[in-house]
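Good day; I would like, with your permission, to put a structural problem before you. What I wish to show you is a protein chain and, alongside it, a tokenised description of its three-dimensional fold. I would ask you to consider whether the tokens describe a fold that such a sequence might reasonably adopt. You will find the record immediately after this paragraph:
***
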Amino acid sequence: MPKSKHARTVALILILALALRWGLILQGGQYFFSDEERYETSRAFARLVMEGSPGNAFSQLFSAPEHLGFKIIGLMPAFLEQFTRASLALPALFFSLFSALNLYLIYRIARRAGASEKEALTALILAAASMSLLYFSRHLVPYDTAMTFGLLAVYAALAEKSEIKTALGCGALAFACFIVYNGYWALAFLGILIHVFRQNNGFGALTRKGLFAAAGFMLPASLLFILAALAGTDLLTEYRSFSATVSQGQFDEGWSLPFEYFWRSEHWLFILLVLLSAIAVLSSRGNDKTVTLWASAAVFIYLCLLIPSVFLHSFVVYGRLARQALPCLILLSAGGFEQLKQSFSLNDKLQKALLVAVIVQAAWNYHASFALVYPREFARQAQTLRPEFVFSEKRLAFGAPTLCQNNGYIAAYVKRFEVPPEPNPPLTGQILLSAPHPDNFLPYQYEGYTDAQRQYLRELNPKMQFYKAADAFMSDLNPVWRTMKNCNIGAE
């Protein structure tokens, strides 16, 4: 493929990937997870600065310093909102740029590591087909943004010449990855390890590279600690306290959850990635340094999840943590695809058939995410359908009842779940709207639920429903109706 045509193919894939992400965002879903509301810190900072209170703004920024880098980057859309209007879609559109950029970085990393144009393009296609790298883009969460800096650290680590500026840059990018999302410390550390050990030039060189990379990490960290201290926050103490809160779920699932999560999110694409990766490893027999690099990187990240969870009980493994390993698996499997072509002399038709199968599986996976309706959007649909129905946004929050009524209408399961809900009592009336609750989306079930809770949730299969209650049901003699909370909190 000519270089110009290859570049156009890469650009087309990236444009399509970004369009898919923006399509998801415009369907809604922002602020479904409580963690997304950390963006409110960015909004508060921008508002206070515009009001002429920069001191209060900095105090607000450091008041809850977990994932601080995400809040700092979030200042860009937050200030833009000050000049336009408040919109959850706007910051989501902004952060989705990082999600699309990650696909391009996987392609560039493959090229810098020595892959051919075709192999790098295969890696890009596999990354673009990944559900795990897509669906979080609709939410205001720091995972994709942190991954961008982690992949940039890996890209810097693969530089042909190991210079001081390379080491400093690698360390600084690793720090950015960690400070944007603290849970991606393994990916952050991976870039530094690759930089230090990729070119084995003796103990002195290893030490020198390690020290400069550490300096690149510590210099911005020290500056941030000083700024936090000036705002009255001890970052080290805050991070220690925060790390102890990552305990919702099961510690002993740390070894198996990544595999189950990838199966539920990617389905047969994950099996293909594993098979292609196995082909790459078996074909190289340890002689291909690139294959060894990506295989070792994937194992390293897996061990960084396994040991602290299963053996140390430091934190629980979630799907969002497991996806750190996916770029390494994709890069490894792209090499396996090239090995498969060479070993079995696959003709162009078979190669294209395999890629078509990848695209078909991706389309099937994507449909599940595009079909989701979220509580906030469902409530808006209900209020549009029946303007006399009033639904307070606080009824979406964790701890809100699963049933509420207003003006003769009932909303069921129109809220976020912290734990799977109890079954609702039988209701009598006309169903006006109905949609599966987003927690039926299988990848979401690996963000803090235990195995028993996941099984229960799949059996319950909760649906958001909007009823016109039957007259007989709206009786004070009916204990369900009598005790039901009002959907309009102000009317209680």
Summary: The beta strands are 403-406, 409-412, 429-436, 463-469, 485-486. The chain has two domains: 102-370, 375-491.
